[in-house]
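Design a sequence for this backbone.
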């Protein structure tokens, strides 16, 4: 019966923060080629310690990830207290994977001046001590995105000077 209930009305409704998030994650670049954007972005993502796991230049797509420890001292202390009070060992965050996705798509082309929209999204996937994927969350820190785009701005500027 549950399978016949259909899709909820608001299933495809964007959240109020969607437009703000998209603006934070997107920049427009002019007078550069897609190849320049992609090769420079790959270098920056690798400089950040991520491994490129997927690249499809025909689609303007780059995906990288890096693994990090996700153990939190406060979670460990809480788990210890819970164990002492209940005798049950709760799961805590153990490992995380930071997934970085970049898509470059053409905006328009006017008299050989190419314009590209570059969108960067970053997700955090967290596994617990039972090796279960505990949560997936988008990184929403404007400083993180600004730092990436500052590096991309500088690198593309230097590439144009060559």
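Sequence:
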């Amino acid at each position: 019966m549950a399978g016949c209930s259909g899709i909820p009305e608001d299933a495809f409704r964007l959240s109020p923060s969607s437009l703000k998030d998209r603006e934070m994650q997107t920049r427009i670049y002019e007078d550069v080629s897609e190849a320049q954007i992609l090769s420079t972005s790959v270098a920056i993502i690798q400089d950040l310690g991520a491994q490129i796991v997927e690249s499809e230049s025909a689609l303007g797509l780059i995906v990288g990830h890096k693994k990090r420890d996700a153990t939190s001292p406060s979670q460990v202390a809480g788990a210890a207290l819970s164990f002492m009070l209940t005798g049950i060992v709760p799961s805590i965050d153990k490992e995380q994977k930071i997934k970085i996705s970049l898509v470059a798509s053409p905006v328009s082309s006017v008299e050989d001046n190419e314009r590209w929209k570059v969108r960067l999204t970053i997700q955090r996937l967290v596994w617990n001590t039972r090796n279960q994927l505990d949560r997936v969350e988008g990184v929403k820190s404007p400083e993180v995105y600004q730092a990436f785009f500052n590096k991309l701005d500088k690198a593309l500027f230097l590439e144009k000077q060559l």
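Residues 30-157 form a domain with the TATA-Binding Protein fold (CATH 3.30.310).
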